Amino acid sequence: MTARNLYLNDNCERRTISGSQLSESVANRVPGTIDDIVYLGSSVKYNVTTEIGEAVVRVPVERAVDAKIGDAVVVGWATENAVVLVDDEK
């Protein structure tokens, strides 16, 4: 069996973020730590380090979480909003 790199590609605006538990309707979730928060006027962008890599989450200001850099969060996404990409090149 050959080792492969796998990448998850989805739209960062379709991800969700929570300071606690996500709704059961969110099929995929991974815990992480906030590395950076950027306020973009009508939205907020969170850079989160997770056990599967870096995640960027962008949400409207109304859905922003009360969190700061270093806080533990949960990032989630719907299965239909993600594509797994395989890198076969070595």
Automatic annotation (TrEMBL):
Designated name of the protein: TOBE domain-containing protein
Superkingdom of origin organism: Bacteria
Transport-associated OB type domain boundaries: 24-85
Example of a GO MF term: transmembrane transporter activity
GO cellular component, one term: ATP-binding cassette (ABC) transporter complex
Lineage, top ranks: Bacteria, Bacillati, Actinomycetota, Actinomycetes, Micrococcales
Database matches in Pfam families: TOBE_2
